[in-house]
Specification:
Layout: E1 3-6, E2 9-12, E3 16-17, H1 24-37, E4 41-43, H2 51-60, E5 69-74, H3 81-95, E6 100-105, H4 114-126, E7 130-136, H5 140-149, E8 154-160, H6 168-177, E9 180-184, E10 186-189, H7 196-205, H8 209-218, E11 223-225, H9 232-239, H10 248-255, H11 263-269
Parallel strand pairs: 3-4, 4-5, 5-6, 6-7, 7-8, 8-9, 9-11
Antiparallel strand pairs: 1-2
Helix pairs in contact: 1-2, 1-9, 3-4, 7-8
């Protein structure tokens, strides 16, 4: 499994997302299949309702706790210091863990103090409830502010990022600061699978468009991704992305789907 190093922390570059799954049984079976397929990074959130299933599937596996990196997120409704602390404790209990590897603020909240919310995560870190701190769906300016406000390094910003949803400004920032960009919805919501460019590149490699879309992300420095599926076949397919590489020309071809790539970013990516 490839890994991303962010502020001295090694994170599996390919994770398994658990959003938009209907109920506990579906969530549990999906996480079980993901762990069996070789995923070692599990992503959940308070608003997904999947924390209990993630924790139970991990506990029921034969894996040691330190083999799996677990990420969850504080819901936006938890606006005050005390609400964030209480929600962290609730997530830790729901996951059945002593410590969560990474806690994110799921969204910036206009009417809440980012400073207070991050102070709560930092204090929970000091208390051993979590190891690392990050954000999700933050702009570059909001990420810079979070970095200034947090005692602990902000090790990632998790955002929607895929062939048709570019994040050039954030990617440039992450490359500059050695911060991880975690790409959720790497396949869109399944609507990338009929993309002609992805299909053509996939045919050259004997791979699926989904595998090429994931590989395109993984070959970008400082980028991790967390595809999700409730289908065991698709879960297994999405992890089979480490036995081929896209050429520089193919990487550029996929950037061209949404207008190409600037010279500065191309240079930073080594393309």
């Amino acid at each position: 499994m490839e890994r991303v190093t962010t502020h001295g922390v090694d994170v599996p570059a390919l994770g398994f997302g658990t959003a938009r799954m209907d109920d506990y049984d579906v969530q549990y079976r999906a996480v079980e299949a993901a762990l069996d397929a070789g995923y070692r990074h599990l992503d959940t959130a308070q608003i997904y309702g999947s924390e209990p299933a993630v924790g139970d599937a991990l506990a029921d596996s034969d894996l040691d706790r330190d083999e799996v990196f677990v990420t969850t997120k504080v819901a936006g409704e938890h606006e005050t210091y005390d609400e964030v602390v209480d929600s962290v404790r609730g997530s830790v209990d729901d996951l059945g863990l002593d410590t969560v590897d990474l806690f994110l603020l799921h969204w910036p909240v206009d009417d809440a103090s980012t400073e207070d919310r991050l102070r709560a995560l930092n204090d929970c870190r000091d208390d051993g409830l979590l190891r690392h701190v990050g954000v999700s769906n933050f702009s570059v300016a909001q990420t810079r502010e979070a970095v200034d406000l947090s005692d602990a390094p902000i090790i990632t910003n998790q955002v929607e990022y895929h062939v048709r949803e570019r994040r050039d400004d954030l990617l440039a920032y992450c490359l500059e600061t050695e911060t991880m960009l975690t790409a959720y919805s790497p396949l869109g919501v399944g609507d990338l699978l009929d993309d002609e460019t992805l299909g053509a590149v996939a045919e050259r490699h004997g791979k699926t468009p989904a595998q090429v879309a994931i590989r395109w992300l993984l070959q970008q420095p400082q980028v991790s991704t967390i595809p999700m599926s409730s289908s065991p076949a698709h879960i297994a397919e999405n992890v089979e992305v480490f036995d081929f590489e896209l050429t520089d020309a193919e990487m550029r071809e996929l950037f061209d789907v949404t207008g190409g790539i600037g010279d500065d970013l191309a240079a930073a990516l080594g393309l």
